[in-house]
What does this fold into?
Amino acid sequence: RYGVVVDFVRGGVEQTDTGRMALQMRGVFAQFERAQIKGRTQRGRLEAARNGRSGGGRRPLGYQCADGKLTIIESEAETVRRIFREIIGGVSVREIAFRLNADGVLPQRGRRWATSSIHRILRNTTYHGDAAYNRRMRGPDGRMTFRPEAEWIPFTVPAIIDRATFDQAQEHLRNNARFLSGRAHAPYLLKGLLRCGVCGLGFCGCPYHGDLYYRCR
It folds into this structure.
């Protein structure tokens, strides 16, 4: 009798181990299949971008994607033009955000404009017609970083502003950065002097739990 019980228990253990192994194998195959699908999707997006079609991702304010092509949404495009007009007119980025919020103009996401959103628009070359896909990638730490420019896939889209307006805006942003870096209350000795080696933007001060750090905009 004892022998039968022992054989039954052993059989149960073996069966449990076999089932666990089968589950692990199914998990491995599922991960492999997800990687294959992700790779095929990415290759399709890259090919679409090489053919002048949107490869996906977040659309810029002022555009919509129709049949793989970016087309202008005039109501949003006017907000983009306003932001460029005001920065060229000498209005600070912070003041632009305040005015948009005061006028009830909604951002693309969220309910209020932030200075980071204004900066993103003012730096985006898509608005003068030069777009690019495959510019960013997610690193091992989960953060988004810029790929080498040689890996970018450029394509042309309808322009909301002209190149001269874009260049003027960049000059005003540089002047604003130099002006703000000289404020007496700023405790960052290298503010206005450091630039990111990846994207070229200036570093800004960033306090964290009482310590002072520098970070890319």
Notes: The mean pLDDT is 79. The chain has five helices and eight strands. Residues 27 and 146 are 32 Å apart (CA to CA). The first strand starts at residue 63 and ends at 66.
